[in-house]
Amino acid sequence: MTNCDRCGKESHGTIVSKFNTDSLCDDCHDDERLAPGYQAADAAELAACRRGDFNFEGVGLSTEDIAFLAKRRKGRGR
User: Fold this and answer.
1) Residue boundaries of the structural domains of the chain
2) 78: helix, coil or strand?
3) Which pTM value belongs to this model?
């Protein structure tokens, strides 16, 4: 059992963020996919993999993405 790096919820499985190396629960992963910078982060990860960089640490979270994700977590009560 692990905990989500974003909301702290216990989770049996996690998914790594496209923005950074955070481990995410399903709810936070769903939120991330709606974040304003998600498409760019996804494209950057794909480009890194194509270059052979399988340890890509992501592009980071913009202030806009951070605010969006915090609002989504607050809406879920976390």
Assistant:
1) 2-75
2) coil
3) 0.89
